[in-house]
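Milestone M4 deliverable, item 7.
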Amino acid sequence: MRSASSPFLVTGLLTDVGRQRAGGANQDAALALPLPQGGLYAVADGMGGHAAGELASALALDTLARVYVQGRAQPPVRLLEAVQAANRAVVQRAVGESVGMGTTLLAVAIDRGAALIAHVGDSRAYLLRGGELLRLTDDHSWVAEQVRMGVLTEAEAQHHQWRSVVSNALGGEERVRLELFGLELHRGDRLLLCSDGLSGVVPETELLCVLSRGLPPQETVTHLIEAANDAGGPDNITAVVVDVMLSRRLPRYPLPESPGQGPEYAEVLLSARRSGGLLTYLLLTLAYFTLLGVMLMPDSSGAVALSGLGLSLMILVGRNTVSRRRRAQRLTEAGRRLTPAQSGEDRPALNRQLP
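Output delivered:
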């Protein structure tokens, strides 16, 4: 467990074995690592027996942090490569008595005004913004898939005997599947990363109530852990809260966008990021023909150059506009997935729309 804060991010982190597992091993692990332009934050929930689960989660986060910090590519690619390395590390250690070990992984890399979220398993990320709580991630679990197919309701899933069965985790195979997407951050945003020891027993209405009290992040995670233990504490509990103190400009690279079709293999996502896609090809083609026009029509070189520059700017502005709309749509859809507010005069209602 590591915790620290950076100048424009304030962090709280706490993990607990859980009331019903007192005296046992804590298979959860958490990370809060400040970096010059932001930070790296993560939660991992190990599985495969006490010793194996504890090893898997710790190994995953140690590898994630090392590879991400040492990487030289753009942050989305570094995060993907770090998740791949974490998966390989768990797979390679899953031998002998540790066969079958694995771990969930929820990692958030904050780079200036953006949060990059990589998600494997059923640990969750939430965003509190303007009094509204939005769930940012979909669980990779058997019961979550049944809910998405309409077989189970959210209430039935919460108490189902297979609610802890994940359908995707590090260590399951040599090729890792994950979801990766980006989010623009605003001043006043509060992020929550947690294991299912918290989200599985504390209703989202209560999460909203605790997160909205305005307490410092470290006090907030303490209250969240207490709430999970008051609800029975059947599992290890981990919470990381990150407060955004300043709005910062977005990085220059395009933020990754989740296709909304569940986890993809990491190499597929890496290939898409490295190739640059259709936009890069289009801009290079436009630059080539602009230069060719300047050479072939020297008398009109100024007009040709301005036309090429104008078209390039139009393409970039259009790309950014579409990306912003898609990110806003993802947040709105995330809000619609939240459980409606329960009764209680002292609990604020869960809003479901993003301003």
